[in-house]
Sequence to fold (250 residues):
Amino acid sequence: MSLSSILIVGATSAIAEQTALALVGRCKRFVLAARNHERLLGVAGRLRARGATVYTFAYDAERMHDVDLLAQARQVLGGELPDAVLIAHAVLPRHEEVVHDPIMAHRTLEINTVSVLTLCTAVCRHFEERGSGVLAVISSVAADRGRVNNFLYAASKAALDVYLDGVRLRWKLRSSQLRVLTIKPGYVRTPMTAHLERMLFPASPERVGAAIARLIAGRRDGRRYIPWWWRPIMAIARLLPDRVMLSIKQ
Fold:
């Protein structure tokens, strides 16, 4: 399946950039939104060097909840909505810095949860009016089970899973041309995870980005684990008693 265009929010993240690069050839036009202007121009330049048409917008997840990015994308795309939207921005704070800090906890939830669900609400409105579109959101395997560490981050992602499940069911009643992808990577070696001392079976951003690109350009929906074997791992983790989870530090 080829895409005429895609909007990528949080386009400067390592996974989002690799997804965009993997989509070149399957997608003609890219609308990129992110906070860091310099890095955003770098991503745009690498896509243009591969022959893509690219538009960029500044977007700050903490301050721009009232901005309709799809409406902005429609303007630069000549009045057309993008075929797909990928929401990829998030923060992963150090657990000990956030667990007792209400301000940092609020910031984490504002970026990872509130801003994402606000964006999804706008996407739902636009795509339902048109009757087609792909909404892909990067969640995490961490959302499947609370652990000793990083449970606030896990909770911020778990809210996305439940919301997206509901949107997916709603869209199945409306049109086969509406798809929701909940992207659930395992550990990925990126700047966001650089402070983690140990990671279980880490994947590269290139591998994860290529998998996401295939999913967006494909025809499937639902919760998609990357790599796939995280699905059975997390199915087991959900069944483990607390006494076992106490020994799992990451």
